[in-house]
Records
---
Amino acid sequence: MNLAVIGTGYVGLVTGTCFAETGNNVTCVDIDVNKVERLRKGEITIFEPGLDVLFERNSKQGRLKFTTDLNEAVASAQIIFLALPTPPGEDGSADLSYIMGVAKQLSHLIKDYKIIIDKSTVPVGTAERVHAIIAENTSETLFDVVSNPEFLREGVAVDDFMKPDRVVIGTTSERARKVMKQLYEPFVRQGNPIYFMDERSAEMTKYAANSYLATRISFMNEIANLCEKVNANVDMVRMGMGSDSRIGKRFLFPGVGYGGSCFPKDVQALARTATDFDYDFRILNAVMGVNDQQRYTLAEKIKAYFGQDLRGHTIGIWGLAFKPNTDDIREAPALYIIESLLAAGAKVKAFDPEAMNNIQRYFGDQIELCKDQYEVLIDADALAIVTEWSLFRTPSFQVMKELMKQDVIFDGRNLYDLEAMAEHGFHYHSIGRESVGKKAMQYEKDI
Ligand code: UDX
């Protein structure tokens, strides 16, 4: 099949590349001339494990092309994916100007039957709005608009795309349904379902899924905070809870709050939709409130330990990306933690295996970027672990102790065993577990 994917951001590039991999001819369109030039030269513009191999193979074999010419891409495609940004507007609602702008252009370009697919996360009712705009200049018999939300996690997006738990397709058109089934069949050979539903339910499904996952995280963060007060261990609680098959083990990890380009934006947008429809979605407001606080939890622990004024203190940071295996720092808890530490007068040194360039652009020379995780520790009064990169799971504790000025660790991801940390002689503070180490005990009594 011939596909056009409009927007070569994260979702567009993964979508286009993976559809090319199953034998479709895909033309990706973007208005950014430089980006298209780089992609044409074979240079991949995002970091996503496994994508480079597919990108190279399909580009070389001519199934994956890039252009700035929307007209040309649309003329040859029967299926047109919209993978455009929907940034939050000032009131929290998703800004649909990119999508509506492209829909307007499409309305002048459609000459034979096409399926226009909303891949971006868009509020309920968007498919209908896109339909209405295209219908201003095109006969309704010449197109269908389908909602087909993505459920890709950064870092494992290729796997999520190639072997999805489910595919959700919102369309009431029989003609579009047949084409979509054919397009997605190669991805669900192992028997996972394709759910067909109306457009509004498909749009709602995406927000409901992301908001529910964010709710689980905020819930566990509150359980962890309470565990600290009642002297319980959240890791034990998590395992005890998660082995109930009604609850499940995944997505129950407390930490430094959820970040990234999806959860914060989508929870906010769903709350906004609720308000627009005169519904007070109380749980979502609590989920956001808990997350806003949790993002500062490591910085607060550090200040509780050393005092509010951190001048003269050096804090090392391990991990800047919002999660491992990505260079993405959008809404990353590290940003909030570092800002809070800098505001308190601390000197901040940091290392991340992938996100250094992005963080450099964000903080400039306000923080010192180090070449590896050990350089961060030289003369550090404390280490704060923000992202759970595998690299940080089994460090040499001996070397760490030799390099650090004080043996203090604030672990936002519960990477280490409490007993082991006590044996190594660290003052070790984590999330939802007792602090270990001599001074830690004193500090616990004080707060
Ligand atoms: C998410 C959804 O998982 C995906 O389906 C959707 O399409 C886009 O949004 P992503 O943002 O890539 O994907 O990351 P995810 O792995 O879901 O993690 C989101 C955030 O939640 C991260 O900041 C992560 O650290 C945090 N998280 C996740 C926790 O704090 N605890 C957990 O148990 C799981």
---
Amino acid sequence: VDDEEGGVLFLPGSNSLSSSSSSSGYGYVSIEKQRQRLPVYKYRNAILYLVETHATTIIVGETGSGKTTQIPQYLIEAGWAAGGRLIACTQPRRLAVQAVASRVSQEMGVQLGEQVGYTIRFEDVTKQDVTALKFLTDGVLLREMMADPLLTKYSVIMVDEAHERSISTDILLGLLKKIQRRRPELRLIIASATIEAKSMADFFRPRKKRREPKNEEIGLKVEPAILSVEGRGFNVQINFAEEPVHDYVQAAVSTVLSIHERESTGDILVFLTGQDDIDAAVHLLNEDMQTNGKHSSGLVILPLYSGLPRAEQELVFSPTLRGKRKVVISTNIAETSLTLEGIVYVVDTGFSKQRFYNPISDIENLVVAPISRASARQRAGRAGRVRPGKCYRLYTEEYFLNHMSNEGTPEIQRSNLVSCVIQLKALGIDNILGFDWPASPSPEAMIRALEVLYSLGILDDDAKLTSPTGFQVAEIPLDPMISKMIIASSQLGCSEEIITIAAVLSVQSIWISGRGIQKDSDEAKLRFAAAEGDHVTFLNVYKGFHQSGKSSQWCHKNYVNYHAMKKVLEVREQLKRIAQRIGLVLKSCESDMQMVKKAVTAGFFANACRLEAYSHNGMYKTLRGSEEVYVHPSSVLFRVNPKWVIYNSLVSTDRQYMRNVMTIDPSWLLEAAPHFYKLQQPNLLH
Ligand code: ADP
Ligand code: MG
């Protein structure tokens, strides 16, 4: 083991480094040397040879071994980007796309957005004819196929983090396999941290009967190559909780404090589930520092989740100051997508936010759910990168052995398939059940999706995209219900307003919230609250923000998240451009909110709910599946409980909560979707 790797030698802060050769003189290890120390470096020639000679190469290697940052650079060095061709590297997560692109551009000593660029939804940091290596989300690559079905500009496509089995990764794998038949010269690299490489190889192995003569003609092996990068992780000592933990946020905070008190130097990585509990943990730790300084002095507490401002994201990668201990409190993005140097202690709460879909009730939920044993092992592994480490699991060994599943279920088997179906249809793939999936989605979910798309007017009787609505919806990179709402608004003359609402719905939250400020922020919200509900409230906030001259002070005063509002402005501009491109009319309805509400209903009629007549606790039932739901406390309609509402999405904790809720007149439902609500008609009359 190189002793220089002992957690002391770090890269200078991300922004201070502009060229790869200038760093060696400052007491840091040169970038070149760091690159050569990564486990993947020994395999450089082997990887290049396999990619040269095989249509598909599967590379398995532990997190931190250098797959994401190094392999694309090797490809450039070997000439795969020559002659104006592009190399793509996909990631399931937006935050990972930005972070690795920024890292690789530093390593190469180039400006981000020039030779090395990235594209995520609503953000394209690439330059035509200059960018040779592009990091992008798997979802964005799928969208690129709509304009260029064979992805002709790419010479090599590396599908990274394949073990995550995100819904877009799975669709992408199926489509890439098809593309390979038409473009035998295209090279695929499937990279992952765990994966049973064999099943992935089986998927890419051509069926016996259908030989692939084209590949053989150009001298390429069709049998996928598998390469396993030997890591050099250190031992990690595992500690289980002795008894089940009731409040995992509190338990995580106590564990961090006790590690800090008892253990030697080394940074701590805590796995929580999302912004809410991460903010809560950060708050508790900060509170402890103020009241009880001696335990927690020297701690530098950093949250990590997508939706965090860029500058804050980058802090987690910056070196720890001498005498300080960094505590990174993260979602499962730090499980395999991002490598943080210097972590010696991992606190694993055993949970993550996962998507679940029930085709019977047609309800999709983001749920805090137990992780799999495979994930737990990955998380523990993060403690052993620089030296032997320790992992504290906040669940019992009995639970780990008997109640956690061995591996997670691919996302496609626990998601609503509406977006997936539209994308495949837009690419001309009609037999969706017969599509070559790495893992087949359930037929029930597929039928539900077809039904919803039919009632939204996106598919016709032959299950083909309707013209123009279906094709227009496919062009808008948003949830089809939101896209449908935008298209309806063009007809109703309120697209300016609806595009604002769509932009707000696509950022995480425009409100500042958190323990300790809840009362003040609720009061601030009342200044904007509209009787119609959250959607119209958003319009009021947007208007206020505009009138203030887009002032950050105004945001601060009103508990509005300035960073989120800036994002809303950006997304709004992009949506306007898309709307114009697909021929929608941009128009404002001024103050006729009835039109706005009808447009929202045109997209979200399937999410209609009625207040239970005898309910004293605000219980609603969905019209669709009679599921019990409640207005989320963050909604301006919380405790108002109007009789008829529609919601944008559901979250479930102890109950199912509707987020972003709007009042409706039930007769609009029949107007918006006569077919959909025909059967429930008697229901609608009282
Ligand atoms: P893999 O994809 O195999 O998990 P990566 O290529 O992401 O590995 O990481 C290789 C190494 O590059 C890491 O061990 C880390 O030292 C370094 N690294 C990656 N991203 C960053 C970053 N944003 N800042 C600093 N170092 C980084
Ligand atoms: Mg990686």
---
Amino acid sequence: MTNILQIPQESPAVKSQPSPKVWEYLTNIIETQGLIHFSLVDPDLNFQSIRSIRKCVEIATRAGTDAILVGGSTIADQFAVETVVQTIKETTDKPVVIFPGNINAFTQSATAVLFMSLLNSRNPYWIIESQVIGAPQLKLWNMETIPTAYCIIEPGGTAGYVGDVKLIPRSKPKIALGYALAAQMLGFKMIYFEAGSGVNQAVPPAMVKMVTDVIDIPLIVGGGITTEEEARQIAKAGASAIVQGTYIEKECAKDGGAGLKRIIAAAKQAAMEQKD
Ligand code: 1GP
């Protein structure tokens, strides 16, 4: 097994920057296909096996997902993250991007990291303090980081609870727009609107539309997206990416990925039509 605490023989040059390969890959997908589909894998091995992760990733890759996110709010440990990332890399050629739930969510084996700030947390740890602790390690690894503003919308799920969040009400798209504009003005490259993993209400398309009509940076939408119609409506409203975790974990194997393939195709088609 790779030693995840491996220290490079020579320190990286102070000003060297990793090449933005994943960022270029993702923006090219938005440009040419309208929308990115992310499959989220939770590295918490208490609830799933390496074998089931392998199977889900295989199916998602065949169904047309673009990249695999690895992360969760109740993370296990760094060795589990490393094991899961290695498994995914053996299974797919898609980029493996860390979607960190905390400072122990990183591994050098990942292709890139969504470097996130939870903007509507009430606890500075999730807004900037955990990032201060994590950043030097990512620098040492010369890891590609994509600055992403993370905002949690009602109902919020576990992420909202763990992140000590002042949830954005579903009925208040103007508040969501304020966050999105602030994120853009602060220089974030992407915004992630999260409704919470496994919730029964995805981010409202009307909120997505109000935000994407105004901002210029890509909006990722995740949490509670399980049907073709929900994916289509969110894409039609202007999202640049959708994330599916629970559906991938619990549903997509039931029909060998046929339903997932339809969801991805519908979302990409709606996004392209919305651009025209
Ligand atoms: C959670 O947005 C993601 O962080 C995905 O949510 O598990 O509901 O698809 P689901």
